[in-house]
Every structure is written in structure tokens, then in C-alpha cells.
UniProtKB/TrEMBL annotation:
<dbReference type="GO" id="GO:0005829">
    <property type="term" value="C:cytosol"/>
</dbReference>
<feature type="compositionally biased region" description="Basic and acidic residues">
    <location>
        <begin position="269"/>
        <end position="284"/>
    </location>
</feature>
<dbReference type="Pfam" id="PF00248">
    <property type="entry name" value="Aldo_ket_red"/>
</dbReference>
<feature type="domain" description="NADP-dependent oxidoreductase">
    <location>
        <begin position="8"/>
        <end position="190"/>
    </location>
</feature>
<feature type="region of interest" description="Disordered">
    <location>
        <begin position="269"/>
        <end position="296"/>
    </location>
</feature>
<dbReference type="InterPro" id="IPR036812">
    <property type="entry name" value="NAD(P)_OxRdtase_dom_sf"/>
</dbReference>
<dbReference type="InterPro" id="IPR020471">
    <property type="entry name" value="AKR"/>
</dbReference>
<dbReference type="InterPro" id="IPR023210">
    <property type="entry name" value="NADP_OxRdtase_dom"/>
</dbReference>
<dbReference type="GO" id="GO:0016491">
    <property type="term" value="F:oxidoreductase activity"/>
</dbReference>
<protein>
    <submittedName>
        <fullName>L-galactose dehydrogenase</fullName>
    </submittedName>
</protein>
């Protein structure tokens, strides 16, 4: 839900939900509130139990303290046309961490705990690039942190998330690995300026993408399914980078199991089915049929 939007966004969201994708992540600054506003209009047509949704507060709100964080959350609820949000993340970046850690600990997280007790949010999360800083907040906070979301830290060039899985697991915190394809690192366009990889990695990946396009007209990032050989090669490479001493599948806590896709075999089977439609057809009633989403 970031970037340019058009009329097709409604179809994209509805198609995703009907095919079992049930977690939607947004934020105020994704389009300067447009993402939340558009989602609010789309989701009024969808049963609330069919999806989970998260939004964020960040540097812009942290500087303004507890009252402004609650005000930001209230405005997000209004734009999304919801009575509660499943997860509210505190987004932490390098620029706003050092002078603001006390505000994060003693105002921002306290404000979100008030919102949780009031039923406005269900879970509190931390998100950002620097795992050490996220871990420091977790260690120092007297507010329960439920979920951590980090970006580009679980990919071939950077698997530092593996070093922190045990730490978060012991704390009972669910872990989300954002941008497993490393945010455009292997595309001809390259990653955005804020990508956490160092310049050497960025230049090497850009050169690799250019080489493939010039030599064989091959795009490194493609949606074409992998062949059996490619699958085996990928698995062999990933075994070199994943911390095999940690059982990744055991990291899920009851919270992350509920939110992020650990489901029974019966539900898995249900997700693969086409959505059923209740009642008579549109031709018979003159009304749109009610879609059954697989998450219900």
C-alpha cells in the first residue's frame, strides 16, 4: 500500500483476501494518509474477521510525545473506519533513536499500552532496520512487546535476523521478516536510498543485474516458478545462511500463530479453495452476492 494508487487497488485487495492473504500493513506516511483512507473505503465491504491490519507511529509522532501518539492512532482509526487495529508498530530508525529512546520507552509505549487497555489496539510491535536497537528497547521496556518487524535482515546478503531469533523467542515475541527479496536489491532499478545494505553490496548487485540483462537479457528478479534444479540450489544456498542451530518454525508464539499464518491443516485446505458465495446469484436478486473469505 505504498506508492501510486489507482482504481485497481480495490481489486488487488479483494483478490488477496479471497486467496488467503489476511494481513495488511499500512501507515500514515504511505502516501501521506492515502493508504489508510483508501483501505478504509475498501474494507467496509469486508467482514472484520477476514483480515488483520497494522499501522505505525514513528519519528514524526515520537517527538511530540504521548498525547500526539494517541491522536495519531485515533486519526488512523478514523481513516481506516475501524474500531480497533490489530497491531500498532513503533517505527524506529537511526536518525530518531539516540535522542529519543526515553520518549519511546516512557511516553510512546506507555501511550500504546493505554490504547491496548482501551481496546483500540490488540498488540504492540517494534519495527526498524537496526536489530540491536529493537532488542535494546525490548530489554528496557516495562510494556509488553508482542511483535518485531525488521526489513532486509533475512536475505542472502544479510541474515543478521538469525542472530536475534533466540533472543526474541525467549521474550515470547513474534518475528516478521520484511522484504525477504531485499527491497529491490537485485533489480536493474536498484534499492531505495534508505536500504540498509552497504555501498559495496549495492554496487555488486547492480553490476550483476546489468550483466545478466546485457549478456542474456535475463532479469534476476522474476515471478517465473523455479525448476527442480533451481529449487535445490536455492535450498542449498539458504542452508548456508540460515542459523541452523535455531528452529525457525518454533519461533511462533500464540500471538504470531494467530496473526501470521500458522494454521491447522483444515484451515490450510480451506485457504486453497475458491471462495464460496452465499445465497442466490446477482441475476436472481439484483444484488451483489456475499463472498465468504477463507479466513472466516
Amino acid at each position: 500500500m505504498f506508492g501510486n494508487v489507482n482504481d485497481s487497488i480495490t481489486q488487488i485487495v479483494e483478490t488477496a483476501l479471497r486467496n488467503g492473504i489476511n494481513f495488511i500493513d499500512t501507515a500514515y506516511w504511505y502516501g501521506q494518509s492515502r493508504s489508510e483512507s483508501i483501505l478504509g473505503k475498501i474494507l467496509t465491504k469486508v467482514p472484520r474477521k477476514a483480515y488483520y491490519i497494522s499501522t505505525k507511529v514513528s519519528f514524526f509522532h515520537l517527538l511530540l510525545g504521548e498525547d500526539k501518539v494517541l491522536e495519531s492512532l485515533t486519526n488512523s482509526l478514523k481513516r481506516l473506519q475501524l474500531t480497533y487495529i490489530d497491531v500498532c508498530f513503533v517505527q524506529i530508525h537511526d536518525a530518531d533513536f539516540t535522542p529519543q529512546e526515553n520518549i519511546i520507552l516512557y511516553e510512546t509505549l506507555q501511550a500504546l499500552e493505554m490504547a491496548r487497555l482501551a481496546g483500540k489496539i490488540r498488540y504492540i510491535g517494534l519495527t526498524g532496520y537496526e536489530l540491536r536497537k529493537l532488542g535494546l528497547i525490548v530489554d528496557c521496556s516495562n510494556v509488553r512487546i508482542d511483535i518485531v518487524l525488521t526489513y532486509c535482515r533475512g536475505s542472502m546478503n544479510d541474515n543478521s535476523i538469525g542472530e536475534f531469533v533466540s533472543f526474541f523467542k525467549k521474550k515470547g515475541i513474534g518475528v516478521l521478516n520484511g522484504s525477504p527479496l531485499s527491497m529491490g536489491l537485485l533489480t536493474e532499478r536498484g534499492p531505495p536510498p534508505w536500504h540498509p545494505a552497504d555501498d559495496f553490496i549495492k554496487e555488486a548487485c547492480l553490476a550483476a543485474a546489468h550483466y545478466c540483462l546485457v549478456r542474456d537479457n535475463i532479469a534476476l528478479c522474476t515471478t517465473t516458478p523455479l525448476t527442480d534444479v533451481e529449487q535445490r540450489v536455492r535450498d542449498r544456498i539458504m542452508r548456508r545462511y540460515v542459523d541452523v542451530s535455531v528452529d525457525i518454525h518454533s519461533v511462533a508464539t500464540p500471538i504470531s500463530q494467530e496473526l501470521f499464518g500458522v494454521c491447522s491443516s483444515e484451515r490450510s485446505k480451506k485457504l486453497n479453495e475458491k471462495p464460496a458465495v452465499k445465497g442466490r446469484s446477482k441475476e436472481e436478486t439484483g444484488e451483489e452476492p456475499v463472498t465468504q473469505y477463507p479466513c472466516l
